Amino acid sequence: MTPDTLADLGPAFLGSRLKRLSDRLQAEATAVLQAHDLPIQPAQQVLLAALKQDGALTIGALAQRLRLSQPTITRTVQGLVDQGLVAVSRGARDLRHKTLSLTEDGARVIGAAQREIWPRVAAAVTELCDGGEQALLDQISALEARLDARSLVDRVTAARGLTVREFSDDLAGAFYAINAAWISQMFTLEENDVTLLENPRALIVDKGGAVLFAQTPDLGVVGTCAIMRMKDGWFELTKMGVLEAARGRKVGEFLLAAALERAEAMGVADRLYLLTNRKCAAAIHLYEKLGFQHDAEIMALFGGRYERCDVAMRYWPAS
């Protein structure tokens, strides 16, 4: 038998193992749909089912019900709109805030899937799981609940002593000192920097944003970053800095992952951007690694806030 390297790697690669299984099941589900002449993909089928079950919904409501990111839902919905299976209400300029509903063709397609395919697939899954499908589904639900309670990032980083702290007034000084140090080292503190660093509660926290800190057992608070509400529903990931004494401990990656997790919890991950400078090459590489993409629209909208800004990036959550 051919060796299965992924299986041999064990629990550290659970996500990759589950994705491989998911990809295989999705491919076979696609073949089943094609065999019944239904012009949809499995991911589209889920959205059609939600609209049939719950009636007209917005992108945000669909994302909440399906526990998927808004950009993922938006991309899938666009395909259904193009096929004439979903109708979009008029009025709002942003697709995410428009109301979606099934067209007659959409209702016909999902109705056919429910009648002709779902019972057969359910029977096949029961056979595949040898009657243990409910136990498997319960285990998946329990795993999702545990991740909601405490993320994988937190569980992994806790092993090296990094923890997240929320903003409190006694940490305002650390927020200023950490950011002023790295900005002054690489650039010049601008008036916009000073105003924000001196007023994190009033300008960030009290306006619906968040300020996070990274702490180690030996050095205390060593890093910080903020998610700040901006105009037109945008949020800026800003003022992310790490003390020089803590360099090499991957504090920046830990903070960025924690900030993205917070943005997801706030429901603003699909409207998150950042501004930086090409001199920050290592940071830009990290941003790209965790899902940010260079974006000319963001540069046009917000790039003028800082003289040093020559890079603008927008976060795109993984599908």
Please give a structural write-up.
The protein has helices at residues 5-8, 14-35, 42-54, 59-66, 70-82, 104-116, 118-128, 133-149, 152-157, 172-186, 191-198, 200-203, 251-266, 281-289, 296-302; strands spanning 57-58, 86-88, 99-102, 163-166, 210-216, 220-229, 235-242, 272-276, 292-294, 311-315. By secondary structure, the protein is α+β, with helices and mostly antiparallel strands. The strands form two sheets. The protein has a seven-stranded mixed sheet with strand order 4-5-6-7-8-10-9, with helices on both faces. The protein has a three-stranded antiparallel sheet with strand order 1-3-2. Helix 13 links the parallel strand 7 and strand 8 (272-276). Helix 3 crosses helix 6, helix 4 packs across helix 5 (70-82) and helix 10 (172-186) runs antiparallel to helix 11 (191-198). The protein starts with a helix and ends with a strand.
Number of strands: 10
How many helices? The count is 15
Secondary-structure element pattern, one letter each: HHHEHHEEHHHHEHHHEEEHEHEHE
Globular, elongated, flat, extended or rod-shaped: what is the shape? globular
Strand order of the largest sheet: 4-5-6-7-8-10-9
Can you tell me the residue ranges where pLDDT is under 50 for at least 5 consecutive residues? none
Q: Which structural class fits the helix and strand makeup?
A: alpha+beta
| End-to-end Cα distance | 33 Å
In this structure, how is the largest beta sheet organized?
7 strands, mixed
Percent range for β-strand residues: 15-25%
Range of helix content: 40-55%
